[in-house]
Amino acid sequence: xxxxxxxxxxxxxxxxxxxxxxxxxxxxxxxxxxxxxxxxxxxxxxxxxxxxxxxxxxxxxxxxxxxxxxxxxxxxxxxxxxxxxxxxxxxxxxxxxxxxxxxxxxxxxxxxxxxxxxxxxxxxxxxxxxxxxxxxxxxxxxxxxxxxxxxxxxxxxxxxxxxxxxxxxxxxxxxxxxxxxxxxxxxxxxxxxxxxxxxxxxxxxxxxxxxxxxxxxxxxxxxxxxxxxxxxxxxxxxxxxxxxxxxxxxxxxxxxxxxxxxxxxxxxxxxxxxxxxxxxxxxxxxxxxxxxxxxxxxxxxxxxxxxxxxxxxxxxxxxxxxxxxxxxxxxx
Length: 332
Ligand code: SF4
Hints:
The protein is α/β, with parallel strands linked by helices and 332 residues long.
């Protein structure tokens, strides 16, 4: 489903919490990696939080950890994230870290490792959501600390969330991805949020992710199945010829996608907590995307205001011109 054919070669080692052995999802994940070395561990943090890990080296050889999340599972959405007008905006930590390796990814700043954790006690997550729904409607981003669609070839997290949302109309689910998605559930409250970037940005800074063409095909495929689709022009990344680059990119997107069918569109430039930036720079010492001389605003590293407005303006004006004004959500 995810279109990542190299997944079985990705994990040379898989660390499994002993208590996770009894969960169905553990079996399901392990069945995809017969050739990997499987090591039993007491607690995922013993591996995940090991000090002194080299993210730069790990980017090309990630390991997998299978664990039970006995801690917090659902979190309040962060202020730098778009809430799309929903009051009760949360995200779920179904997994941590991503099979892809975008240079600018906040996960590099947040975690001291590139290794990926999949939590297998999904029933506990769903119970927590049921409880939250007793208080009123919930908007939940399930693919937040990871790309769940990219992992859907090895674990069923994405379809678990889809099934839950399908049977709970008050629960609006966002599944954000850069992966190639072939199967979708057509429901108003299940939003497939595709992040799109110019091919130049993908090649430079979004390692291992599908091409723009593949992403656009996925979007069209989802639309043809009647899915609720969000386009995310976020993050916009600075390159010297950004005006040309992003104008050509909008042309490509508007040529390929029937924009009238899109539910809504988010626009935002790269922004990151200043505390994370140092870690990201260590993890990507040669990436111009993260070594830009950012400004600091309210604890966040951001592009200087004039540049930010110019970059956002390109997308905003072009999309308004295409009749999308009422669908736009812009992070200023
Ligand atoms: S696809 Fe998203 S979560 Fe994955 S590395 Fe890129 S920015 Fe991070």
